[in-house]
């Protein structure tokens, strides 16, 4: 589903933007969630939750890999490199993805925007451990996916607000502040909404 940016469909108007859950969405993993949308086309959409922490640290995650088992990790340094691991979404939840700054790139790196890139191979984890990974990184387990037309319907049903993405929010380590910060940035508060919305 992910494509190089110059091949992006004209229907991908939400690609590279934030989805901010409406307050009425309160019965799923998407409640009070912030999603960075990496792909959007007539085929569907794909993105990563940014503010749902996983129960595993980055050093623990790397410790489960073959290369991680073979080395002594400086856990504090590794964990500081990308902050808390996020739950990226309910799809492929055991697979790791890394959103990162543009100072790191390999053959499999996909540019999502001018400032945010995506790499989903173990090579980027090796680079982080070796100390020459990206300056900014956000590690996610799993992703959020929508079928053809599904995201558009949810937005029409007032399940999501959309807004320009901010790299500082993408890479910030404090997950609890992200949702209220974006609601405030939109100039609105939860009290202004009818507590009813679409389902994700």
From TrEMBL:
One of its GO terms (cellular component) is cytosol. It holds the Pfam family DUF179. InterPro entries: AlgH-like. Belongs to the UPF0301 (AlgH) family. This is UPF0301 protein E0E05_04890. It comes from Roseitalea porphyridii.
